[in-house]
Design a protein that fits this description.
The protein has about 200 residues and is mainly alpha-helical. It has 3 domains: about 1-35, no CATH class; about 40-145; about 160-190, no CATH class. Helices cover about 75% and strands about 5% of the residues. The chain has helices spanning about 40-175, 180-190, and strands spanning about 5-10, 15-20. Strands 1-2 form a two-stranded antiparallel sheet. α1 (about 40-175) runs antiparallel to α2. The longest helix has about 130 residues, at about 40-175.
């Protein structure tokens, strides 16, 4: 059986191979001085540092100012948008307040018009009722006058009929005709005194 030992130094790698001495051969040591796969070389360090400093200078002089100006522009735009939104909100509130004031004015005018229309209708209704009541009163007076005239005419007609019947009955009972003025006076006094009711 054999053993492999790898030793790393700053100058390179050394590999030692140990073989067993079963056959009596002498121990051989082989050393390889190639580059280290883990430790970077000076050229690599120089290229890395150069790229880092170039990127640092590029970032500091070109990219960071652009990024910063972009951030300031975005911040300014956001601030402007906030201000614009606040102005729009204030304008909308002012318009709403103006609309509500106009609406209140229109409602007040509508209430006044409704009150005026209601008063006008009430006055017209009162005038119409008064006119209707006057017409009814006039017709009632006419009807009462016509009824009174008809009653007077009927009463006169009844008196004449009663006087005629009474004269005829007295003539049949006595055999002579009584005085028409006396019969009319008696029938009129009886009818006026309630004898005819």
């Amino acid at each position: 059986m054999f053993t492999v030992t790898v030793t790393t130094t700053s100058a390179g790698h050394a590999v030692v191979v140990n073989l067993p001495r079963t056959t009596g051969e002498a121990e051989t040591t082989a050393e390889d001085k190639g580059p280290s796969p883990i430790a970077p070389e000076v050229k690599e360090l120089a290229w890395g540092a150069g790229a880092f400093f170039l990127l640092l200078i590029l970032m500091r002089l070109v990219l960071f100012p652009r990024l910063k100006s972009g951030m300031h522009a975005r911040y300014g735009k956001i601030r402007g948008d906030h201000q614009s939104a606040a102005d729009t909100r204030a304008a909308a509130r002012a318009e709403v307040a103006e609309y509500e004031a106009e609406l209140a004015t229109v409602k007040a005018e509508a209430r006044q018009r409704i009150d005026v229309a209601r008063q006008t209708l009430e006055a017209e209704r009162t005038a119409a009722l008064t006119a209707a009541n006057e017409r009814i009163s006039a017709r009632r007076a006419e009807a009462v006058a016509a009824t009174d005239a008809a009653r007077a005419a009927a009463s006169q007609h009844i008196e004449e009929a009663v006087a005629d019947v009474s004269s005829r009955a007295a003539e049949l009972a006595t055999g002579r005709r009584p005085d028409a003025a006396a019969v009319s006076g008696i029938v009129s006094s009886l009818m006026a005194g309630g004898g005819g009711q």
